[in-house]
Amino acid sequence: MLGLVQIALVTAVVRESPLRTGGRFDMVGAIGLSAALVCLLLAISQGSVWGWGSGQVLGLIGTSAVIFALWGRWELRARTPLVDLRVSARPNVLLTNVASIAIGFGMFAGFVLNTQVLQAAPATGYGFGLSLIAAGLALLPVGGAMMVFSQVSAQVSRRRGARTTLVLGTIVLATGNVLLATLPGSVPLVIAAGTTAAVGAALAYSALPLLIMDSVPETETAAANSLNTLMRMLGTSSCSAFVAAVSTGFVQVVDGHAVPSGVAYTIAYAAAAGSALLGMTLAALTPRAPARQPVVATASATA
Fold it and tell me: What residue spans define the domains of the chain?
């Protein structure tokens, strides 16, 4: 239902781009990229369940690598590739995409863990014993902060540039994760730390598409942004797998049940903070995009 509402809103509000590039849809490239990503993401998401050294995980990773290699060869030779790899290899595009993986990792830790911390039993030493509904209500400021600061990100990017916004966002994101890594002793402190991380995530995530669009030709913005979205998804999936591995590796027994220890949460949040700082470093090192050349209209478009 929400998807249908979004489709209706996009149809009613978003204007159609007048730019037309022509060409044919790269069906082979789409199938190849989908197959490679399915193998890779399935291995990452199930690694802690099947075992990182299991035949299933290693086989999926190997299959993904082979498919990616064949897909890359196809894309370099295709007349109208799904993804222009030559454009994606530009330093400003490549570093932004790698930074997106790190930022996705740094953002997702709070989404995965904050609710668990709030609902964990007080006997764990870090939990507060809230119900599912109470924990959800406690995290409402996180969603509100992301909605508000997405708009702030646009204003900062307009005045200072998207790279500045990205660096600022990653610093705030890292700060929020560091605060969460200390396992705050009260619900208001958890809310404050989680909201801080959410503010940073909103600033950084809103700046990423702007950096990509500034770095590629206008005819490549859709494909380039789609690839960047995949990079962010790779970061969040990696974070989920890492959190699962740490949570099962550091446990304690409370009331006869094995639950994650406080050390597990500290490690996960600290890793998220480090990942956000890595994203900040990559963003700072990203060269400024060259001035975009105007698109020359074709004869048919001019007519």
Answer: 25-82, 86-289
Q: What is the pLDDT of residues 206-238, one digit of tens each?
A: 999 989 888 888 777 878 888 888 899 889 988
CB contact at 8 A, 158 and 151 = no
Residues in the chain: 303
What is the spatial distance between Cα 61 and Cα 70, in angstroms, rounded to a whole number?
14
**Mean pLDDT for the chain?**
87
> Which range is least confidently modeled, 23-27, 190-194, 251-255?
23-27
In whole angstroms, what is the distance from residue 57 CA to residue 55 CA?
A: 6
CA 239 to chain centre: 10
Pair of tokens at residue 111? 């989404």
Helix axis angle for 262-285 and 91-119, nearest 10°, is 160
86-289 CATH, one of 3.40.449.10, 3.30.365.10, 1.10.10.60, 1.20.1250.20 = 1.20.1250.20
Instruction: In whole angstroms, give the CA distance from residue 18 to residue 74.
Output: 29
- CA 66 from chain centre, in angstroms, equals 24
pLDDT tens-digit readout, 63-91:
999 999 999 999 998 888 888 888 888 88
Query: Using the 8-state DSSP alphabet, how is residue 121 labeled?
Result: -
Q: Structure pTM? A: 0.84
Angle at 68 between CA 67 and CA 70, to 5 degrees: 65
